[in-house]
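Title: Comparing notes on inverse folding

I've been comparing how different people in this forum approach sequence design from structure. To keep things fair, I'm posting one structure and asking everyone to reply with a full sequence. Here's the target:
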C-alpha cells in the first residue's frame, strides 16, 4: 500500500520556486550601482536639460538641488539621496530617462565600446608605468612631465577619495589623442584617393 506521507516534508514546491525567483544580492547591488550612476549622469547635465527629462517632479528637484551644492560632503550626501530616489522609479521610467540621455549623446554601440576602451586605457595608465611608456612611444609629441603629473594626481585623488579632476583630465587627453589619430587616418585616406585619381588622370591623358 502506498505511503501517503512519502515525499511530503511539510512545504510546497512553490516555496522553493519563489525563493529562486528572487534576484541575487550581487544582481541587486549591480542594479543599485547602475541607478546611482544614472543619477550622477543626470546631475552632470545642465539644469535646462534636467528639466526636460521625463521623470517625477521629486526626483527632478533632488537633482537640481544637488547641482547647487558646492560643499563636497553635502554634495556627496545629496548625490546618494538622488541615487535613492532613482531606485524608487518604475522600470519604464528608468528606460525613458536612459533613452533621453542616449539621444542627447547620440551614442551608438561603437561609441560606447570606444568609450569603455578609453576608460580601460586610463586605468592601465594608473596601475602600470609600462602603459605610459607605450603611450609616449605612440605619441612622442606629448609633454612627458605633464602626463606624469596628471597620473600622479589621479592616483592621489583615488587614495584620498577626492573629486576625480585629474582622472577626468586623463580621459579627455586620451580622447583627444584618439580623435587626432583618426583625423590623420582620414587625411592619409584622402591623400591616397587623390593620388589614385591623379594616376587615373595620367593614364587617360
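Reply #1:
Here's my take.
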Amino acid at each position: 500500500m502506498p505511503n501517503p506521507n512519502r515525499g511530503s516534508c511539510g512545504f510546497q514546491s512553490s516555496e522553493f520556486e519563489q525563493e529562486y525567483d528572487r534576484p541575487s544580492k550581487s544582481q541587486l547591488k549591480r542594479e543599485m550601482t547602475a541607478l546611482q550612476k544614472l543619477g550622477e549622469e543626470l546631475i552632470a547635465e545642465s539644469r535646462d536639460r534636467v528639466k526636460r527629462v521625463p521623470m517625477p517632479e521629486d526626483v527632478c528637484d533632488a537633482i537640481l538641488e544637488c547641482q547647487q551644492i558646492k560643499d563636497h560632503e553635502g554634495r556627496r550626501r545629496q548625490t546618494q539621496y538622488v541615487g535613492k530616489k532613482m531606485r524608487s522609479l518604475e522600470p519604464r521610467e528608468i528606460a525613458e530617462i536612459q533613452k533621453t540621455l542616449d539621444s542627447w549623446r547620440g551614442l551608438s554601440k561603437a561609441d560606447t565600446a570606444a568609450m569603455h576602451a578609453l576608460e580601460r586605457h586610463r586605468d592601465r595608465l594608473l596601475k602600470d608605468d609600462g602603459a605610459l611608456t607605450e603611450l609616449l612611444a605612440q605619441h612622442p609629441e606629448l609633454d612627458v612631465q605633464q602626463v606624469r603629473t596628471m597620473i600622479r594626481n589621479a592616483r592621489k585623488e583615488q587614495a584620498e577619495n577626492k573629486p576625480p579632476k585629474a582622472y577626468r583630465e586623463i580621459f579627455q587627453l586620451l580622447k583627444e589623442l584618439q580623435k587626432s589619430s583618426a583625423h590623420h587616418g582620414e587625411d592619409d585616406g584622402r591623400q591616397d584617393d587623390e593620388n589614385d585619381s591623379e594616376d587615373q588622370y595620367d593614364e587617360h591623358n
